[in-house]
Amino acid sequence: MESPAPLEEGAPLTSFVKTGADPAVAAVKQLLKLLDKAAKSARTYGTKNPVAQRFFQQFYDDLSKHLTVHPHLALLVQRNQLLFRNEVVYQPERDATGDSFAFKMYSDGIRELSFHQGLTQDDLAFFLDALWGTPSGEAGSTEEPVDLEEEDDDDIVTRLWAKNLETITLVTAEELVRSSGFGLDELELQTQGYMSMSVTSLRELLDRERAAAAEKETTPEAAGQRAGGDSGGANRNRRFQANVVGYDVSQEEHAVLTQEIQRETERDATAYICDILTAVLASEPSPALLTKLFQVWDHVLDVVIRSGQWIQLETVLTLLQDAESVRPDLSEAHQQQLAGLLDGLSRPERLKAIGVHLNRTPHAKTDGLPTLLLMMKQDAIPGLCSLLAGLDGPSHQALVMDTLHTLARDHSEAIVRGLTDKRPTYVRNLLTLISRWGDARFADPVEKTLRHPEPTVRREALRILAAIRPSGNGTKLIGLLSDSNETVRLTAMKVLSTGQYSIGFSAWAPFIIVDEFHDRSPAEKRAIFVAIKQTAADEAVPYWQGLLTEWSWTNRKKKEELAILAADILGKLATPAAMAALEIGEKKGGAAVRQACSAALSAANRQQRQSLPPAANS
User: Residue 284 and residue 281: Cα distance in Å, rounded?
Assistant: First the structure.
């Protein structure tokens, strides 16, 4: 069945008719959507609830408008459908048979339902009450309530016939069978085409059959039979016939019923219990029972959290948040109970249960879990940090980090304390969280993490520190150039080579004058010299000049390599002091060093000429 767009309150039905569709059929579809909403709201919240009464009033208003244009509205009732002009205008969801008013009417024997002009609000209210067995007068009726306790066993047909409404008429399966004149049962009527006729044909069929039966009674043969003894036997047969019409079920129908029963049996028990508790919350007048109900809700939250039913939990939490609007008559004590349910979401045992479930089910669905986490308050931050530290899956950790990103930005004490933890994955997650905040006030705590025993943590801390404190004194970063992990050392060199940090040469000297420095790779020594150039500049020129003129019999080759690197760096520095040092090296250095100094001087002069304006060069 095609599902029309939802009907807005107060909008005319004709505005929802699609191009090319029968306007009357589309209008009836919208009417029945309103009836479905009214029925579901009444069953869930009770007919006195404002939401249910609003849907009822809207359905009555639109139905009345329809009946002012058309003399009546006739609907053919099938097993779980309503038809109008041979088109399906109502069909519930596949698993919603229990909430289907079409199935309800069909199971009570109704095969055609008609609304006529002059329909009153009281008549419509009585019909809906009879349909669901609720006391009259709650869905908008102005009549005195009718006590239906003695009529609990009556079906819909009996209740409506007892009322004898002129504006709502029915055709039942029993009428069709008795009026067929052929002794056919209902299934035979369907197979021979009676039930596939147009909507209005059922009433016309009954009228035609009754007229034929009355004409037959006036024939001489009928009179003779009444005079003879056969009439007594016929009357006796009619007297002992049961009033209940039986149903023959085909194998296909039996299979469908079996599937429906199976689906009902497999229905989630927790969802079923929550539906019951929701109905009790919406309608229970007893304060004592409401108190117990909120206690039950607390246990339900525990069960749903332990089992990881996050979508069901999201539904429950949304309901509890809206409970005061559904029940504005809640006492102060009940409101406190309700607030306690929401405040108790972050209890340590519940956070632990979340972690246990997620670790035990690595590929568990987490839809609905963010709603639970984001409903927690600031006092849940330490517990959420503990939850994050204990989770194994990266996707699960990301969910908790998203929550902490929202809750802990201005309450970061637990985050800062966690940076001293020895678990590297947990600390890296906290560093990522700080990186997302991008706040320089976390620079000092992050700097302390540079001493963490795990290299990946040190490297991540260095990267984040460079992002949130991109300039200043970089003396504390020199220690990372001696880190045991090469990746950490290279990352530190890269950060210091940006030119945004300043470090006095006195801080560099203990690091580069030791013999161990000569054993580093040429690439690493070059990177360190670049970092010195960017942070100390001319302060390092005397050191590099000494390398150019130094003579030594030990480690001669390594020192010569170092001197050549120094000449190249001095040429790139190209300050007057650097140029003077290169000129000295060109005169007093070894052959290889003199050649390197000459090349560096030429490159520096060329660079200076290129940087001058064109007029100066000419």
Answer: 6
